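Throughout our pipeline, every protein is held as a single compact record rather than as scattered files. Nothing more is needed to write down the fold, since each code stands for a local backbone conformation. The record that follows is passed on verbatim for readers who wish to inspect the format.
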Amino acid sequence: MDTSIVVTREGSIATVMLNRPDKLNALTKPMWRALGEAIDALSADDSLRCVIMRGAGEKAFSPGNDIAEFATERANKAQAIEYGHVMHATARALAGCRHPLVAQIHGICVGGGLEIAALCDLRICGTSSRFGAPIKNLGLVMAYPEMLPLVRLTGPDVAVEILLEGRIFDAAEAKEKGLVTRAVADSEVANEARATAERIAEGAPLVARWHKKFARRLAESRPITADEYDECFDCFDTEDFRIGYAAFLAKKKPVFLGR
């Protein structure tokens, strides 16, 4: 059984782990496919409130694709297109996940690993974490679907800087560039990611899904339609709104049902 992607669950929070610690969680084609399948399954689970993405161990989130696989899986354009279809299907799964995604970043987060982290909603790293996309050194291009989340976070100018220079940079610079949400002491990354996921899980899950949807939609240039504007008020007809409103008046902690 393939154990390169491990999914665990505690209450309403799931953790998805890239599990190749002997290779610093370098990604293979089967891993990309398994990751997409895992995210699709979690997205369809209405009992979930949040998903944490991480790499096994504390040396690396992921350094990107396993270069050893290039000779057999990406040796020419036709093979690369097929590989790209798998990668980009997983990127779509991550981008379309209905639940908030929190990246728990230990150590190295480079190339394809950075692309996965960029597709999460929040990214929490350690102060010694390292980032970058030095694919110019391999003579490779970052395709549109891979570059999109990077551009969304940093803007096109900074994304081009990262790709043209190919530097590996530290957590402080990653925070300055907008690549990470929060940088904490290395020893606190797991605790902070978990606390963040718990804070998210305590909120109304339908609201979290709407906020994700609306924020992504606002990044598009086309105007908001009348139907989209109308959807902003659907929350007032939810049971969770009534629960939250009543709990606020009663000075109690709300227990949302996702309805």
